[in-house]
């Protein structure tokens, strides 16, 4: 296999925090020893509950925040401790689409000014070339030249996110980190943005690190899926393997949380233990998931599991991964996630039915 575009080894990020009445600073272990790689042209999805460390990992990868430990290699170059000056040319090759299009765009700039800014910062092109590049990108994301001189307050959420995607693509990047790019949008337009991202990946040969919590979107977008819990990877597998045969209890519970087509249908598996979700500031000993896991044994409470192979391309951090009951996927489980999945299917069908 060729060298990955992005390789992360033992990535750690700890934050210090102090409450109002606390004398000492607590350590929040937001990301705690995460390793993965992303091949050129693929989409790796990072999933997990809020607070699992997904967005922190994304920002660490792009050096928007500094890692406490670990290594980040991009295009074969170790960028973990690279200076901002040496990072500057690499910034063109790695870009980000932020979650909230309302907060990530400057309301004082027109769309044209917003899109030209990366070109100006990196000294690319003259005024005519920058104008042509803006018009080209607006067309690629489904907007017209008449949108260029408007301010972002005049746009809908979906249109703003299209502007955010266009801005991320202005410098022709290889890697695009998408931090929950549709979660802030109305469900009626989420499918359009997801399909746009897939179309752009095919046209431009993009590589995505895709952060999400909606498993219907992940099933539609990802080639491989990495599941995070309290700063750790607990499972990493090809998309079809993970959705058809998840090997970690937490992954199974995420899939069980997808709304079922028959609301009165009883749960298929042993329910989660009644316990509060953990916190990166107060981690349990042993397996971090054991207070909520219905399959936990004494070993889980005292010994932290390491990622270990559980199938072709599938690694799992669970002492009992070979002892869990057989998994029976719910019929149409990935499509059972309400309106989002329905929109994905309908939009894809309409797109495929278009002439030419």
Features:
alpha/beta; Rossmann fold; single chain; 2 domains; four-stranded antiparallel β-sheet; 12 strands; about 350 residues; 11 helices
What's the layout of helices and strands?
Layout: E1 6-17, E2 26-38, E3 43-47, H1 54-61, E4 69-74, E5 77-78, H2 84-91, E6 94-97, H3 111-121, H4 127-140, H5 157-169, E7 175-179, H6 187-204, E8 207-211, H7 215-221, E9 224-229, E10 232-238, H8 239-244, H9 249-256, H10 298-302, E11 308-311, E12 314-316, H11 338-353
Parallel strand pairs: 3-8, 3-9, 6-7, 7-8
Antiparallel strand pairs: 1-2, 1-4, 4-5, 9-10, 10-12, 11-12
Strand order of the largest sheet: 6-7-8-3-9-10-12-11
Low-confidence parts lasting 5 or more residues at pLDDT below 50? 331-339
Shape annotation: globular
The tally of domains stands at 2
Any idea what the radius of gyration is? Answer: 21 Å
Helices, by number, come to 11
Percent of residues in beta strands: 15-25%
State mean pLDDT (0 to 100 scale). Answer: 86
Q: Main β-sheet, in a few words? A: 8 strands, mixed
CATH topology of the largest domain: Rossmann fold
H/E element order: EEEHEEHEHHHEHEHEEHHHEEH
CATH level-1 class of the largest domain: Alpha Beta
InterPro entries: AAA+_ATPase, ABC_transp_ATP-bind, ABC_transporter-like_ATP-bd, ABC_transporter-like_CS, Oligopep_ABC_C, P-loop_NTPase
Domain ABC transporter: 6-255
Pfam families: ABC_tran, oligo_HPY
Family: Belongs to the ABC transporter superfamily.
């Amino acid at each position: 296999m060729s060298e990955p575009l992005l390789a992360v080894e033992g990535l750690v990020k700890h934050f210090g925090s102090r409450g109002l009445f606390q004398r000492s600073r607590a350590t929040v272990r937001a990301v705690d020893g995460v390793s993965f790689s992303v091949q050129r042209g693929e989409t790796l999805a990072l999933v997990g509950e809020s607070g699992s460390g997904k967005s922190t990992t994304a920002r660490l990868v792009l050096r928007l925040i500094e890692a406490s430990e670990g290594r980040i290699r991009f295009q074969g170059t170790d960028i973990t401790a690279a200076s901002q000056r040496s990072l500057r040319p690499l910034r063109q090759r790695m870009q980000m689409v932020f979650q909230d299009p309302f907060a990530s765009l400057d309301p004082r700039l027109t769309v044209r000014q917003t899109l030209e800014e990366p070109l100006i910062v990196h000294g690319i092109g003259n005024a005519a070339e920058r104008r042509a590049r803006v018009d080209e990108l607006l067309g690629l994301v489904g907007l017209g030249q008449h949108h260029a001189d408007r301010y972002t307050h005049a746009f809908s959420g979906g249109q703003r996110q299209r502007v955010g995607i266009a801005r991320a693509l202005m410098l022709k990047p290889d890697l695009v980190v998408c931090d929950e790019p549709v979660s802030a949008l109305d469900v009626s337009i989420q499918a359009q943005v997801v399909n746009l991202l897939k179309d752009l990946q095919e046209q431009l040969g993009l590589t995505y690190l895709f952060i999400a919590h909606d498993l219907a979107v992940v099933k539609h977008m990802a080639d491989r899926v990495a599941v995070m819990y309290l700063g750790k990877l607990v499972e990493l597998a090809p998309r079809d393997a993970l959705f058809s045969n998840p090997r970690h209890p937490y992954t199974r519970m995420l899939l069980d949380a997808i709304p079922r087509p028959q609301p009165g249908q009883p749960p298929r598996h042993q329910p989660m233990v009644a316990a509060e979700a953990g916190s990166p500031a107060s981690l349990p000993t042993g397996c971090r998931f054991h207070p909520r896991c219905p399959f936990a044994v004494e070993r889980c409470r005292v010994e932290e599991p390491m990622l270990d192979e559980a199938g072709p391309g599938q690694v799992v951090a669970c002492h009992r991964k070979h002892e869990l009951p057989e998994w029976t996927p719910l019929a149409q489980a990935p499509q059972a996630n309400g309106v989002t999945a329905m929109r994905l299917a309908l939009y894809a069908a309409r797109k495929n039915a278009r002439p030419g």
